[in-house]
Structures are given as structure tokens and as C-alpha cells.
Amino acid sequence: MPGPVGPWAWAFQTEAYARAVFLGRFSTPESEIEEQVAARMERQQILSRENPPELYVLMDEWVLKRPIGSRKIMYDQLRHLATVARRRRVTVQIVPFDTACTDGLSSSFVIAELEDAPITVSVDSAGEGEVSAERGVVSLILDRYDKLRTEAYRAGESLEMIEEAAELWKPET
């Protein structure tokens, strides 16, 4: 369960943060970085719809501490994350770095529930991604999600943590 670099990263990243993430990946050709950043920013519009999807996100606490880009990029990123976390239909919860539950730490995942469709999961690891509606896979991911959520801070506490972390990254003037 990495930070906002999983399959749902598009919803939470500023342009500068996304660019820094892509620049840090050796597998992303430089010629594609701006295209991928633009696509990620465009997908954020889904949260501005009149009826946006519900989004529940669990993030590892290290996301607040791991330097990506500059202090300004981190400050702006965490302020943006706090803004998105305040949106209606968005719930962000931080999973403590010292949690004993390691089930979700090996990959990031998304659980999609749509009307008139089976529950589908998307699981991303460092090497590959998989989308499945197979009952056993879905059950395993739902179980991991539930276990992680029981370890996570409540949404209000998580928002406070994000805001406090942003202040620690605030660039000196």
C-alpha cells in the first residue's frame, strides 16, 4: 500500500509531484513524462463532477514523510491532499507506519463497485498489474482492505496528520 503512487494516484497528485514521481521512475521514458502527467491531471476532473464517485483511500503514513522532489513540491502536494480529503464523497485514512498488519504493504489495490457489475479489484505491484472479478481474488483483497482499515486512523485524525506534515515541509522564506 504505497502512498499516492498507486492506481488511484491521479486523484491526489499535484502536477509537480506527479512529474517528480515519473522522473524518479527509471522505467518511464522522458519523452512520455509530460504526456502521463497531463493525463493524470485530466483524470482528476472526475472528482469535480456533479455526482462524483465515492473514494475511500488508505495511505501509508510514510507518504507524509518520504521526500519526493523539493520541499515546495512536498508542501504543495500535502496541502492538495488535504484539500481533496475534505471533498464530499472522499475519505482518506492514514495507516500508521508501525502497524503490525502487513497484508496491504506488498502492493497497492483498488476495489471498484459499480451498479450492475460484479465487484472488481485492480492490484498493482512493482512488476505488473492485475484486474479481476474472480470471487477468490476479490475476497482476498476485501479482507486485506478491512484489516488495514481497522489499523488506520479515523478520517479526521488523518486530515490533521496531513496538515501537520505539510507544515513540516513548508519551504523557508
From TrEMBL:
Domain DUF5753: 12-164
Superkingdom of the source species: Bacteria
Record's protein name: DUF5753 domain-containing protein
InterPro entries named among the record's database cross-references: DUF5753
Organism: Acrocarpospora macrocephala
